[in-house]
Please model this.
Amino acid sequence: MSNNTKEQTEVIEFSATKSNMVHPQQVWNVTSQQPTIQQNNLVAGSYSQRDWSLGLCGCFGDCKGLLCSWFCYPIYMLMTYSKAGQGFCDCLFGGPLPLRVKVRTERGISGSICGDVFATACCPCCSLIQVAHEVENTKPLI
Model:
């Protein structure tokens, strides 16, 4: 019987030492880099605001632009988009409003989105001539 007890004790001690064993832990250093996005932010008041170099009704002074916008409006709009560095798809899906807003903000021209909507909706030909004149004769501030 004592033999039997001795075996049981050894088994119990073995299992106790087995469960109390400290296992080395592997340490993993994980570093993750967050993606960075570079944005061009315009700060209000960082440049002086000016008026359009050609007024909305000043389109009558640009005979070439007037004829092109009245008789070949889509082609004239595509040419203006191209000169402004925009693509065909921008012209096709955007219409004249995004180009007008882009040119106005890039060149520091005073105005608002409401004025741009009004000009492109009520006077699309004159508005496009005005934008084309800015694209051809002025450089972006940005």
Summary: Residues 119 and 141 are 23 Å apart (CA to CA).
